[in-house]
């Protein structure tokens, strides 16, 4: 059975990977619509601003999670054992 510290470290890694994927997805959606607008296609400026806001929000959540992890790295020391 994994110790709570090791499990927490794995959960944090998965959380950060999920945030990275979300940030990339939102940024790609924004970039795609922006490229369409630059290409001369009709694009609602409100939608473009909304996608930009969503991309910036996802990037901010990722940055905060990475900063928190750097400030307080998970303790992966395995405790217990009878080595004395």
Number of strands: 0
Structural class, please?
mainly alpha
| Fraction in beta strands | under 5%
Number of domains: 1
Mean pLDDT, all residues: 85
What's the helix-strand series?
HH
What's the multimeric state?
A: single chain
Can you summarize the main beta sheet? none
Give the overall form. rod-shaped
Rg over CA atoms, rounded to whole Å, is 20 Å
Low-pLDDT parts are: none
Number of helices: 2
Highlighted features:
84 residues, mainly alpha, rod-shaped, 2 helices
Report on this model:
This protein has 84 residues and is mainly α. It has one domain (4-69). It contains two helices and no strands. The protein has helices at 4-38, 45-71. The protein is rod-shaped, with a radius of gyration of 20 Å. The mean pLDDT is 85.
Task: Give a topology summary.
Blueprint: H1 4-38, H2 45-71
Give a short synopsis of this structure.
74% of the residues lie in helices and 0% in strands. It is built from 2 helices and no strands.
């Amino acid at each position: 059975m994994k110790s709570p510290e090791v499990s927490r470290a794995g959960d944090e890694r998965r959380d950060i990977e999920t945030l990275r994927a979300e940030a990339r997805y939102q940024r790609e959606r924004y970039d795609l619509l922006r490229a369409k607008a630059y290409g001369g296609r009709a694009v609602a400026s409100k939608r473009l601003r909304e996608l930009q806001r969503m991309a910036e929000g996802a990037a901010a959540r990722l940055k905060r999670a990475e900063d928190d992890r750097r400030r307080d790295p998970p303790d992966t020391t395995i405790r217990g054992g009878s080595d004395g």
